[in-house]
Design goal:
Largest sheet: 5 strands, parallel
Mean pLDDT: 94
Number of strands: 19
Structural class: alpha/beta
Number of domains: 4
Strand order of the largest sheet: 3-2-4-5-6
Distance between the termini: 15 Å
CATH class of the largest domain: Alpha Beta
């Protein structure tokens, strides 16, 4: 699919001012302006994220009430149950809060619902487990904001519930003892994009402050938090950037046996990046809940013996391999099913259903199909007599609103602007497919349906030197809201050593006039090889990467796209 290259907008006056006061390469001032950094002090805070700049936890609505209730439970030795979701954000939230509270209090337990038997959110089975085990306080993490009926059942049964969630609330909130969710419309908390584990961390921080314990006890939890931030694809801006920056430092030096084994199994080298978590650690953790019991992931995260960590990591690694097989097979089936639809190229959305698809991988498949066709996508399967599924969007389109327009056809739904989950009755699949298409068609902009690569600046290859790379690394950690900068270099030519790998990937060896030769890799761009080999100039759009191979480090260009025309039609 043809892609548009678009320069990220910025205030040129701000960039010029930053150049005057910072005395660094103009491209970096442009990058700062694109990130809404305006002054010397703001730049200092950006380049040196400080834990002292975290927001006070008691700015969050209901934090006082939640902290008081936890401290009451500790004082009265009440049994506490931490109830979490089965994905990475949920399991790290459970492990993090259990780790913190278990040092203060016993008895304490945790519970994660079975994805297939109980589904997403707070289940009646989970509440009954709490009642049977004489739990007096449930703390939900990464779930609960939509669990009105089950939380009412808990409260009526004498079990108080504190909700720690980061999903969008509906108009009617659950009757919990306290709700911590910065997305509540009247919550004054300044930062709204915390992960579920991030909200749970603020609760731990609040308890810590009330008990006047050292902040180091909270700081020690940040390795859990950064895994959640990376895996849940939340913005790495503001407070999340501070938590991620220091969380990576903790993770790269972690002494937790489970995390050390996860890093080893991921095949990623320390120091880890956000990308290493997303593509290395997260899939292994997620495999527990996708194919079986997510509590195994929590047990691995909390493992206190090397043998337990090895056994659990082996188990999850085997499940992850099976997950990849399911993912690949279902993805191919989904592509074929979509292209069999009448006038499939004219559709603005994709809704696909097969009863035999594995529930644990429909979210992954939805992401891949949305990326491939650049359409808001819903992948559905059958589970327990109901239709369940996951939705993924494209940049610039709020898929949660489109699903909300189909609310009367759904049993329940929830999620974010870019990702959501939903449940409906089998008889409503076709009606949902039509209604969702109408909702998307009526609101999506035509340009949103065309894949766009945002780039930060035009750069000569000769400017990419060790000092440039060192400063660029200070923009990390990279992720949503603070993407790894993408650059464009014009009129590059083959140095004579470019080649095609596996008939589809382009390995480039390129230069500009008077520049050094740079190596680059363009996955799926092998069709351009004949043009590249002709020695005619072309333009590339890319990230700069530090490639690590057999102990050696060298800079490499990760090519996202290239154009062979001198008039830059993709700009």
């Amino acid at each position: 699919m043809e892609k548009i290259w678009r320069l990220t907008g910025y205030d040129a006056e701000v960039a010029r001012h930053l150049q005057e006061v910072l005395k660094i390469h103009p491209v970096f001032c442009q990058l700062l302006a694109q990130r809404k950094v305006h002054t010397f002090d703001e730049a200092k805070h950006f380049f040196r994220p400080q834990l002292s700049n975290l927001h006070p936890p008691f700015l969050m609505k209901n934090m006082d009430r939640a902290v008081d209730r936890v401290i009451q439970a500790v004082a009265q030795k009440e049994k506490i149950l931490i109830y979490g979701d089965y994905d990475v954000d949920g399991t790290t939230s459970v492990a993090m809060l259990y780790d913190y509270l278990s040092k203060l209090h016993q008895p304490i337990d945790y519970y994660i619902p079975d994805r297939y038997r109980e589904g997403y959110g707070i289940s009646y089975e989970g509440i009954e487990y709490a009642i049977k085990n004489e739990v007096k306080l449930i703390i939900t993490v990464d779930c609960g904001i939509s669990a009105n009926k089950t939380i009412k059942f808990a409260q009526n049964s004498g079990v108080d519930v504190i909700v720690c969630d980061h999903h969008l609330p509906k108009d009617e909130l659950p009757p919990a003892y306290a709700i911590l969710d910065p997305k509540q419309h009247d919550c004054p908390y300044p930062y709204k994009e915390l992960s579920g584990c991030g909200v749970a961390f603020k609760l731990a921080q609040g308890i810590n402050e009330r008990l006047e314990r050292p902040f180091s006890e909270c700081e020690a939890l940040l390795d859990y938090v950064v895994i959640s931030i990376a895996s849940d694809i939340v913005d790495i801006t503001g407070e999340n950037r501070i938590l991620a920056f220091h969380g990576l430092q903790k993770l790269n030096n972690t002494e937790r046996l489970g995390l050390k084994m996860l890093i080893k199994r991921s095949g990623k080298e320390v120091p880890l990046t956000i990308s290493d978590i997303v593509f290395g650690i997260a899939p292994i953790i997620n495999a527990a809940g996708r194919l079986a019991d997510a509590q195994q992931a929590v047990r691995l995260l909390l493992a206190n013996s090397k043998q337990a960590a090895v056994d659990l990591a082996d188990l999850l690694e085997r499940r992850n391999k099976i997950r990849r097989e399911f993912d690949q097979r279902i993805g191919e089936e989904a592509k074929s099913l979509f292209q069999m639809q009448h006038k499939w190229k004219d559709r603005k959305s994709i809704v696909l259903y097969q009863p035999h698809w594995h529930k644990g991988v429909v979210g992954i498949v939805a992401s891949r199909i949305a990326d491939l066709y650049h359409r808001p996508t819903v992948i559905l399967t059958e589970s327990g007599g109901k239709i369940v599924g996951s939705a993924r969007s494209v940049n610039g389109f709020n898929i949660h609103n489109a699903i909300q327009a189909c609310e009367d056809l759904l049993i329940n739904y929830g999620g974010h602007d870019f990702a959501a989950g939903l449940t409906l009755f089998p008889g409503n699949v076709l009606a949902f497919q039509d209604r969702f298409e109408a909702a998307v068609s009526g609101t999506i902009e035509d340009e949103t349906l065309v894949p766009t690569i945002e780039y930060a600046a035009i750069l000569d290859l000769g400017e990419i030197k060790p000092k440039f790379w060192q400063i660029l690394q200070q923009f990390a950690p990279f992720g949503p809201g603070n993407q790894n900068p993408v650059f464009v270099s014009k009129h590059v030519i083959d140095s004579g050593y470019s080649k095609v790998l596996k008939d589809q990937h382009l390995q480039l060896s390129i230069k500009q006039i008077e520049s050094a030769v740079f190596q680059g890799i363009g996955f799926g761009l092998g069709q351009y090889f004949d043009y590249v080999q002709s020695k005619k100039p072309f333009h590339i759009i890319y990230n700069i990467q530090n490639n690590r191979f057999q102990g050696h480090h060298y800079l490499q260009l990760a090519i996202k796209d290239l154009t062979t025309s001198n008039d830059l039609p993709k700009f």
